[in-house]
Design goal:
Chains A, B: Pfam families: RecR_C, RecR_HhH, RecR_ZnF, Toprim_4. Chains A, B: This is Recombination protein RecR. 2 copies of one chain form a homodimer. By secondary structure, chain A is of the alpha/beta class. Chain A has 7 helices and 6 strands. The first copy, chain A, has helices spanning 3-14, 21-32, 35-52, 87-96, 124-131, 146-162, 185-193, and strands at 54-55, 62-63, 77-84, 101-105, 137-140, 166-169. In chain A, the strands form 2 sheets. A 4-stranded parallel sheet of chain A has the order 4-3-5-6. Chain A is globular, with a radius of gyration of 21 Å. The model of chain A has no long low-confidence stretch (mean pLDDT 90).
Chain lengths: 198, 198
């Protein structure tokens, strides 16, 4: 289809998460129909990102600078570290604007099934920060999964070893806008357990 | 989120058809997590495509060579030209392997609403080919829409002016694997009208 260059572009686009073969063809056509204004600018944005973006040596997020914009922002509260599994989780929190502290990106969870142990998690820089005594609170914002809970539990113990720090977890319960009959049983139990005076 | 380079990459990915903001972020993360093996190769495939891919001066498809691989293939039947609206339609027919002739990509349909007239369609090279007397049959494989039918009708008349050539249209009816009660009324009418001896 359209020679090797087109075919190769389609195949590589189809490997992107969220794009299948059909949408990859549509995307390739859209890009190829405007090579100067769409295809080349995207290619250049990718090259620039590949050249400039690195992993922050403090928190583990992706940014054009190291330390990242968040870790080097004096306006943020460096005494409150929010621990998340992935960079995507960090982005979600940043979009909500709810967290004005800093982060630690683990890069995953402990998982016996996937063979991920403590040595596979990005925690050294978190423990260093806690040891240095600058951290008041560590918010464990991990997924509400078995692996997330296991990791939070393990990390809670690990933090207690290295220094006096308050560890908290995000609340579980009914999503805002949700209705009771749409909730799964696990969330229902969590929501009832976390009940507070009205 | 992650500095200007990351943000810019996400925004440009989000403009691809089929990708929204959320999937664009997922795609950006997947690419950035493997800059050498995923991000840069995709960027380079895009630059190569932008540099090499052009519109075939004979049929109007996109290819790395001009004339394209189909138009310059001596094994194909250059006496049968299949007229399609878009390059995507040509790709669909090529995947099916049903057409062993050549193509003409109109680049759209006539549309009073969108202000597209005959001068906006890529037909000159088709009329030239018919005039040259090398074309036996023109298959009008246009969309089963009002605009597709209008364009097919107009093109049929136009072809009759320039040379003796058989113009045919693709059959309309029930899709293979389809069931009667899933068909819209227009397709039902077309399927009944196109009935043949069993």
């Amino acid at each position: 289809m359209g020679g090797g260059d087109v075919e190769r572009l389609i195949q590589m686009l189809a490997r992107l998460p969220g794009l299948g073969p059909r949408s990859a063809r549509r995307a390739a056509l859209a890009l190829l129909s405007q090579p100067e204004t769409r295809l080349l600018p995207l290619a250049r944005a990718m090259e620039t990102a590949a050249r400039n973006v690195r992993t922050c040596s403090v928190c583990g997020t992706l940014d054009s600078s190291d330390p990242c914009g968040i870790c080097s922002d004096p306006a943020r509260d460096h005494g409150v570290v929010c621990v998340v599994e992935t960079v995507g989780d960090l982005w979600a929190l940043e979009r909500s604007g709810v967290h004005r502290g800093v982060y630690q990106v683990l890069g995953g969870t402990l998982s016996a099934l996937a063979g991920r142990g403590p040595e596979d998690l990005n925690i050294t820089s978190l423990l260093d920060r806690v040891r240095a005594g600058t951290v008041r609170e560590v918010i464990l914002a991990l997924g509400a999964t078995v692996e997330g809970a296991t990791t939070a539990h393990w990390l809670h113990d690990r933090l207690a070893e290295v220094g006096p720090v308050m560890a908290t977890r995000v609340g579980h319960g009914m999503p805002i806008g949700g209705s009771l009959d749409m909730l799964d049983d696990g969330t229902l139990v969590a929501a009832l357990t976390a009940r507070r005076p009205a």
